[in-house]
Specification:
Structural class: mainly beta
CATH architecture: Clam
Distance between the termini: 51 Å
Number of domains: 1
CATH superfamily: Lipoprotein localisation LolA/LolB/LppX
Helix content: 10-25%
Strand content: 35-45%
Shape: globular
CATH topology: outer membrane lipoprotein receptor (LolB), chain A
Strand order of the largest sheet: 1-8-9-10-11-12-13-14-2-3-4-5-6-7
Number of strands: 14
Number of helices: 4
Oligomer: single chain
Amino acid sequence: MNRTHPRRTLVTAALAACLLVPGVSASAAAPEPPAPAVDAPPPTGDAPLPTVAEITRRIDALYRSKSSHGEMTMEVVTKHYTRSLGMEVWTKGEDLALVVIRKPAREAGNASLKTDEGLWSYGKRSDRLLRIPTGLLGESWFGSHFTNDDLMHESSYEKDYDTTVARVVEDGTPLLVLHMVPKPDTAIVYTKVEYYLTPDEFLPVRVDYFDKDQVVRRMTFEDVKVLGGRRLPTVMRLVPSSAPNEHTILRYVDMTFDGSVPAGTFTPQGLRRATQR
């Protein structure tokens, strides 16, 4: 096994291919040879086991972008309700994101804004923009199984986790797995995280979140397509183990990477302009 301390997570979550996709960034303290190009997957079979840094640079090549803009849908099924949302999303770098609900009509214009100052919630009917306090980051995001904290990615994998990489075989299918274990005295709610990827393209397959030895949350990645010129999973399904008949499914309908984003998009004024379209 290879061990390193990746710098920062893009955990569950990005609301373009960079917000809700769980990824990790390689440590800048340990430079290595350049990662393979996106159209030239690394070899498998008897090839040396890739390092965590190599894997995360590969993930960065697939998911990172200077900016993105796109459309997605979200389906939420719980014991108490079912809801479907159509949303438009903009991102810029790692710290700026705007998500606006477009459908259904009764919720159209409600929005979430993420800046380097925190996470904000906007209600179109009341025309109020409220900052989400730290104590509420664990609450549901738009009534889904994702939380506000999933959008904030505040955990640092360099400071908070030790990570190893290994090969596994599941039902005859070879995979890579990143084992992520919190360091002592870190405020991490999970005892470990296991992140499974394809061994050739390093595409995410599944992420398991553990409480002791029990999986309490699972996210799977499905329907790989070319999206915005990149081959990516376009469906993400999150299921809580405590309610296996419930789920939240995010589907990316369309996505453009590295395009221009209007100035002021990630401000209260820009948010209100976007909600009026």
